[in-house]
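Give me the fold.
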Amino acid sequence: NILATGNITAYFSSDARLKDNKEKISNPIDKINQIGGYEFDWKTDLVQHVPTHDVGVIAQEIEKVLPEIVVTREDGYLAVRYEKIAPLLIEGIKELSQEVERLKNILDKNGITE
């Protein structure tokens, strides 16, 4: 089954040659900390053809940190382009990895081992 309510693009190009003004996402951990992952039950009187229990994010939270990945549908409800969350997570993991390495170096300099 396919339920589509507009704008479906599969495998949009990621080729660097098609992109200008590339900048790393700033403060990814701060942004990640402003959003949550939720388990929830859909309001079946408002949303049909979806599982009753689900997991996801809240569009209003995402809109505060990455407004460009939230769209307003014709019915006025907000939708999140989930695939666009991946770059934020990638940069967040890299930032955490750098922090772990920094802390390891401090421990090594102070002769503290695992």
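The chain has a mean pLDDT of 89.
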